[in-house]
Amino acid sequence: MDSRQSKRLLVSACLAGIDCTFRGKNNLNNKILELVKTGICIALCPEVFASLGVPRENIELSGGDGNDLLDGKAIAVSSSGRDVTKSLIAGAGKVLEVVKKYGIKEAILKSNSPTCGAGRIYDGTFSGILKDGDGVLTALLKRNGIKVITEKEA
User: Fold this and answer.
1) Which residues pair with 36 in a beta bridge?
2) Do 135 and 66 touch, CB atoms closer than 8 A?
3) Are 105 and 92 spatial neighbours (Cβ–Cβ below 8 Å)?
4) In whole angstroms, how far apart are CA 43 and each of 10, 20, 68?
5) What are phi and psi of 9, to 5 degrees?
6) In 3-state terms, what secondary structure has residue 75?
7) Contact indicator for 135, 117 with CB cutoff of 8 Å
8) Domain range list for the chain
């Protein structure tokens, strides 16, 4: 992590121990928490920025991944069937504003998430099955030249 000392990173807030998952819990990663404590990382949750609350219903992407969602070819659906596509896109957009403001070029985001997942996300059936693809925030960040990895790669 020494090579990152001179630049800021975006991290999923849940990885820094902030209780913001849909269950109202966190996904604490001690290595990431230490980076946040040093001021290297800015911890944000796009689903909180989307005003979806904590806790909230589980969300999955149906009909594609985050790129498809941004292109209007997929939707984000809560476990009760509510379409939350506009909210997720708005939350990702707010995070992108922060990324641009602080000149962030790299992000460490929570794997498998409908917003933060990089490379693998849940398939939209709420059955625990993963599929290839990126979450909506990851897709938006990549479109803006930001490198995204998961906590498993950090």
Assistant:
1) none
2) yes
3) no
4) 6, 11, 26
5) -125, 150
6) strand
7) yes
8) 2-150
Distance CA 135, CA 116 (A): 5
How many Cα atoms are found within 13 Å in the side-chain-facing hemisphere of 47? 31
pLDDT, tens digit, 9 for 90 and up, residues 1-36: 444 445 899 999 999 999 999 999 999 999 999 999
Residue owning tokens 């896109």:
89
pTM: 0.94
Q: In whole angstroms, how far apart are CA 134 and each of 3, 62, 64?
A: 26, 12, 9
Contacts for 138 with CB less than 8 Å, ≥ 6 apart:
66, 107, 109, 115, 116, 117, 118, 148
d(CA 107, CA 110): 10
